[in-house]
Amino acid sequence: MGSPEGELSVLLLDDTGIAELNEQYLNRQGATNVIAFPMNEGEFSEINPELLGDVVISMDTAAREAGEMDISLAARFKELLIHGILHLYGYDHETGETDARLMEEKSSVLFDLIKPIDLEFE
Questions:
Q1: Looking at domain 7-114, which of 1.20.120.420, 3.40.390.30, 3.40.140.10, 3.40.50.720 is its CATH number?
Q2: Read out DSSP for 39-58?
Q3: What residues contact residue 11 under an 8 Å CB cut-off, 6+ apart?
């Protein structure tokens, strides 16, 4: 994706924690599954171009969605992590059907690449 030396942080929260971030930074109410905070946008983005940003995932929501989708928590976590990373790269499913389709296609390709990685959650 053009950033072999790119750096990001991943923060795992519960629904309460992500709801606070969602309201504070996005003016949206309630918990969500993933929020991405890109660092390559804005006034100081040129300071460290390798710093992609932060991906915040609610493990409560991820677990609930995994159950609803009848998939493992590890698989849902990977999907949300990819989703957040794609947002850091400027992909946005909320800007139209074409953009949503493009993001879904890229998500699928990336998920297939990391599918063999074994994650375990307690």
A1: 3.40.390.30
A2: SSSSTTTTS-TTEEEEEEEE
A3: 54, 55, 56, 57
pLDDT, position 34: 97
Q: Which of 110, 92, 113 is nearest to 102 (CA)?
A: 92
Structure confidence at residue 106 (pLDDT): 86
Residues 6 or more apart whose CB falls under 8 angstroms from that of 18 comprise: 31, 32, 35, 56, 57, 58, 61
What residues does each domain of the chain span?
Answer: 7-114
Instruction: Give mean pLDDT in consecutive 10-residue pieces for the chain, a chain of 122 residues.
Output: 78 98 96 93 75 95 97 94 92 80 87 78 64
